[in-house]
């Protein structure tokens, strides 16, 4: 498996964030456009060091190539995992390695018990990442996500601290 490092986002990472969100598949994932340095800094600040979330820049060979995060941490010691990689870093196992590292951190450092994630059914690459990172399929949530005027079914995966 590829070696990844997780670290906090820094202001000098703005070009990476802007480049990532220029890709059409990434642009539709953002709640609002991330197309200016100010918007990229706002995106990074949103993650910050909140009680209910933590995001990490994913670094391979000294280069920031993605993001991995746990959010919506609740009173049941459950969190929601998300990840993305820059277009040029895809298909190399980066996202799966980052999700594994994030899960280890979340279970050890945050004391979480359950991690969940979901992907649109039309995103088999994300499904492969989740499976390689040890997240078990739990079922399909119908019409869970809405992008524009289109609703998408989502396959839910979970990983427990005891897995």
Pick out its properties.
163 residues; alpha+beta; Aminopeptidase; 7-stranded mixed sheet; 5 helices; globular; GNAT_dom; Ribosomal_N-acetyltransferase; N-acetyltransferase domain-containing protein; protein N-terminal-serine acetyltransferase activity
Describe the structure.
By secondary structure, this protein is of the alpha+beta class. It has one domain (5-160): Gcn5-related N-acetyltransferase (GNAT) (Aminopeptidase, 3-Layer(aba) Sandwich). The chain is 29% helix and 35% strand. It has five helices and seven strands. Strands 1-2-3-4-5-7-6 form a seven-stranded mixed β-sheet, sandwiched between helices. Helix 4 (94-108) crosses helix 5 (124-132). The chain is globular, with a radius of gyration of 15 Å. The two termini are 19 Å apart.
What's a concise summary of this model?
With 163 residues, this protein is α+β, with helices and mostly antiparallel strands. Helix content is 29%, strand content 35%. The protein has 5 helices and 7 strands; from the N terminus they run βαααβββαβαββ.
């Amino acid at each position: 498996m590829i070696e990844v490092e997780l670290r906090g986002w820094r202001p000098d990472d703005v070009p990476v964030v802007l480049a990532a969100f220029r890709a059409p598949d990434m642009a539709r994932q953002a709640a609002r456009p991330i197309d200016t340095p100010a918007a990229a800094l706002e995106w990074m600040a949103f993650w910050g060091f909140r009680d209910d979330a933590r995001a990490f820049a994913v670094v391979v060979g000294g280069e920031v190539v993605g993001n991995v995060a746990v959010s919506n941490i609740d009173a049941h010691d459950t969190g929601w995992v998300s990840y993305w990689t820059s277009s040029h870093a895809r298909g190399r196992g980066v996202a799966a390695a980052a999700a594994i590292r994030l899960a280890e951190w979340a279970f050890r450092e945050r004391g979480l018990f359950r991690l969940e994630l979901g992907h649109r059914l039309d995103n088999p690459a994300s499904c492969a990442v989740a499976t390689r990172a040890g997240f078990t399929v739990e079922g399909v949530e119908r019409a869970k996500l809405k992008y524009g005027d289109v609703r998408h079914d989502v396959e839910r995966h979970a990983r427990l601290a005891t897995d």
